[in-house]
Amino acid sequence: MTDWFAQLNPTLQALLGTLFTWGMTALGAALVFFARTVNQKFLDAMLGFAGGVMIAASFWSLLSPALEMAADGPLPVWFPAAVGFLGGGLFLSLIDKLLPHLHPNAAMKDAEGINPAGRRRSTLLVLAITLHNIPEGLAVGVAFGAVAAGFESASLASAVALAIGIGLQNFPEGVAVSMPLRREGMSRRKSFFYGQFSGMMEPLAALVGALAVAYVEPLLPYALGFAAGAMIFVTAEEVIPGSQEKGNKDLASMALMLGFVVMMILDVSFG
Question: Which of 115, 145, 179, 202 could form a disulfide with 137 if both were Cys (CB 3.0 to 4.6 A apart)?
Answer without folding.
Answer: 202
